[in-house]
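Slide 14.
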Amino acid sequence: QVQLVESGGGLVQPGGSLRLSCAASGSIIGGNAMSWYRQAPGKERELVALISSGGSPDYKDSVKGRFTISRDNAKNTVYLQMNSLKPEDTAVYYCYLHVEGTSVNYWGKGTLVTVSS
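Slide 15: predicted structure.
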């Protein structure tokens, strides 16, 4: 059973930075796109950033220029560098993997990011 474990969340002041990590339990992320989602209180879960198997990133408009997604297949880890954080970035951040060519997908349990002064 594949597990995705997020880490790096916490409390940060507006304008601050955090780096989230998502570690997979097996050698599964290679060849698959990886994504970060977030869910704020009372809101639906939304896609924040995606990185293709080839390393091409894509971002939600509101985080472009502030967030950077990257991957290290050798470490089975995906990262989300978040800079210039705003209170509206406050949410639980989830890692997501869809195994390409199948209906199989995995979610992490999430890590809480709180942006507040």
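Speaker note: DSSP finds no helices and eleven strands in the chain.
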